[in-house]
Each structure stands twice: as C-alpha cells, then as structure tokens.
Write a structure and sequence with these properties.
The chain is α+β, with helices and mostly antiparallel strands and 71 residues long. Helix content is 59%, strand content 14%. The chain contains 3 helices and 2 strands, in the order H-H-E-E-H. It has helices spanning 5-12, 16-28, 50-70; strands at residues 32-36, 44-48. It has a two-stranded antiparallel ribbon with strand order 1-2. A hairpin with a 7-residue loop joins strand 1 (32-36) and strand 2 (44-48). Helix 1 packs across helix 2. The chain starts with a helix and ends with a helix.
C-alpha cells in the first residue's frame, strides 16, 4: 500500500535522499504518484500506478525467464 519516502527508505535500507531521487524518476515515468496525507498535510504517500504495476510485472516475468535460462 501507500508509503512515505521515509517508510520506503527504512524498509529498503536506503537513505531518504536516495529514495527521494528514485521517487522523482518514478514520478516522471508515471509509475507512481504522490498523495497528500490527510493527517499531515506536509507529508505525501507514494502510490503505485497501473503503469507501475505493469512495469513490475514485466520485470518479474523477465527475472523468471532469466532464472529459467540459468538453472
């Protein structure tokens, strides 16, 4: 579900500035969008779009194909 950049950084063990840079690129590609939090108007949740989900599915399928080739 939706997560803040801070939550994503903590989950992945990446700096918050690193996640912010990645998020910016994903926003440009329309793979995610920002949704203002209701309880804190200064914070945003990062939400995966349909295009983002499709991209992740393609990457997952590609990974499976690669694994099948090397097994």
């Amino acid at each position: 579900g939706p997560k803040t950049t801070k939550e994503l950084a903590e989950m992945k063990g990446i700096s918050q500035s690193g996640i912010s840079k990645l998020t910016k690129r994903l926003l440009e590609k329309k793979y995610v969008y920002q949704e203002r939090q209701l309880n804190d108007r200064r914070s945003f949740n990062i939400v995966l779009t349909g295009e983002g989900k499709a991209f992740l599915n393609r990457v997952e399928d590609f990974g499976k194909e690669i694994m099948n080739l090397i097994e």
